[in-house]
């Protein structure tokens, strides 16, 4: 980046450090009670998945215990986790959603 003269008459050049943001995976966890259709709905509604991919992710979680919904910057990931946890609680399902640094 550039620093320009702001009054001294001496122009300077400033090196601007750019850095990519850390990325976070949002994961959903399996449980014995949340209906499969509800999980598919969550993946469609909050993670913009189509029916086919949402179903694949849900079945992966059902069989393996955990699965990735998406990868986001910290604030976006945190918002997704809160939205999913609130939605599951409102519908009285025990679905758990967490984030982890990549
Ligand atoms: N195991 C649940 C069932 O049999 C389905 C399920 C899938 C629940 C994925 C949570 O993240 C989950 N109804």
Automatic annotation (TrEMBL):
<protein>
    <recommendedName>
        <fullName>ATP-dependent Clp protease adapter protein ClpS</fullName>
    </recommendedName>
</protein>
<comment type="subunit">
    <text>Binds to the N-terminal domain of the chaperone ClpA.</text>
</comment>
<feature type="domain" description="Adaptor protein ClpS core">
    <location>
        <begin position="19"/>
        <end position="97"/>
    </location>
</feature>
<keyword id="KW-0378">Hydrolase</keyword>
<comment type="similarity">
    <text>Belongs to the ClpS family.</text>
</comment>
<keyword id="KW-0645">Protease</keyword>
<comment type="function">
    <text>Involved in the modulation of the specificity of the ClpAP-mediated ATP-dependent protein degradation.</text>
</comment>
<dbReference type="GO" id="GO:0006508">
    <property type="term" value="P:proteolysis"/>
</dbReference>
<dbReference type="GO" id="GO:0008233">
    <property type="term" value="F:peptidase activity"/>
</dbReference>
<dbReference type="GO" id="GO:0030163">
    <property type="term" value="P:protein catabolic process"/>
</dbReference>
